[in-house]
Automatic annotation (TrEMBL):
Classification via SUPFAM superfamilies: Flavoproteins
InterPro entries referenced in this protein's UniProt entry, alphabetically: Flavoprotein-like_sf, FMN_Rdtase-like_dom, NAD(P)H-dep_reductase
UniProt protein name: NAD(P)H-dependent oxidoreductase
Gene3D superfamilies: 3.40.50.360
Any one GO molecular function term: FMN binding
Top-level taxon of origin: Bacteria
One Gene Ontology cellular component annotation held by this UniProt entry: cytosol
Amino acid sequence: MTAPLRILLISGSARRDSFNTRLLDVAAARLHEAGAEPQRLDLGALALPIYDGDLEAAQGQPAGAQALVDALAAADALLIASPEYNAFPTPLLINALDWASRRPGFKAAAQGKPVAMVSASPGTLGGLRGLLVLRNFLAVNLGFLVLPSQFALGGAGKAFEAGGGLAEAARLEALDAVLAELRATATALRNPAA
Ligand SMILES: Cc1cc2nc3c(=O)[nH]c(=O)nc-3n(C[C@H](O)[C@H](O)[C@H](O)COP(=O)(O)O)c2cc1C
């Protein structure tokens, strides 16, 4: 029997009631229902300081950098949900990936790994502009395989049901389409001859 797809879910926000983390909760449930194995990684818990070359030279790379590389290496695919701050991905997310990119195993863990991006924001565009920058950062700079499909949840303050799901069926369908593309791509890459 084929092992379930391991999909690493990362939020670009460490805020307790983060809309992006809540969007990942919805995605995790959908992935689980589809037979995949969602795995969460809390970037805040990695406790990575802001990258500083002097700090790195004096103290080495923090353990959290390797923890992120290990999580990436163990995953068949990655799903990132990030807010935009001034139309840019969050410092939490960029800083974590910067630290991870300093580790020797990062390239092998990231190269060609399929990534789907989603975002959520109380604003109308749902963080869409940050995804454009994130796409470039992940694909061109770090070598991930970023999928064409993405999903931005605007008006996030009113988008969730009390139980945590998405209130509008059309938005759940849009999220599902991204997740389906991620699963299909990861499956194809795992079984290239199939
Ligand atoms: C410094 C800063 C800049 C922000 N810039 C934007 C922005 O450019 N576009 C937007 O839609 N929301 C922006 N916001 C609002 C965030 O989308 C909002 O705080 C959101 O709840 C953060 O995501 P989270 O709920 O996952 O923590 C900004 C918030 C902060 C703190």
